[in-house]
Amino acid sequence: MKHFFSIPLAGLLLALTGCAALMAPPVNPGEPETQVLARLGKPTSTYQDGNDVLLEYARGPFGQVTYMARIGPDHTLISYEQVLTLEKFATIKVGQFNQADVLRTIGKPFETIYYDRVKLNGWNYAYKEAGVWNSEMTVYFDDSGIVRKLENGPDPRFEHSRFGR
What we know:
Blueprint: H1 2-23, H2 33-40, E1 45-49, E2 52-59, E3 65-71, E4 77-82, H3 86-89, H4 99-106, E5 111-115, E6 120-129, E7 133-141, E8 147-154, H5 160-163
Antiparallel strand pairs: 1-2, 2-3, 3-4, 5-6, 6-7, 7-8
């Protein structure tokens, strides 16, 4: 009878240990670039930002998560953050940012659409608003590549009853 309780207990402890490992940050500031690449793998894109290099890691279901690893000129990790958030979208300056600025800020969109009627190119970003709602942020660019507006709303891929998909 003693073994009956010890096996489930051992399994529970092992599962909890696994959960704790999943919640720990995968990389930490100060780690060398080689270690970051070894742990995270090949980035989905790479951007130059002054003397720093940004490694983009688009992750998650439906592209709702993108991490940016900032590598300094000394080839060590400066920061690692999830960038598809309202706070990060709010840093995009209408009339000032161009497409390269947006890529360095929030990475590649999951979809682009040209709106011929208004002559704007929309880059769509899926994200979890407040960590709960399936949302979509669209960054609109004019023909010269300058941000003209941002617009968010529900992600139509999840709104079957409202959008008829």
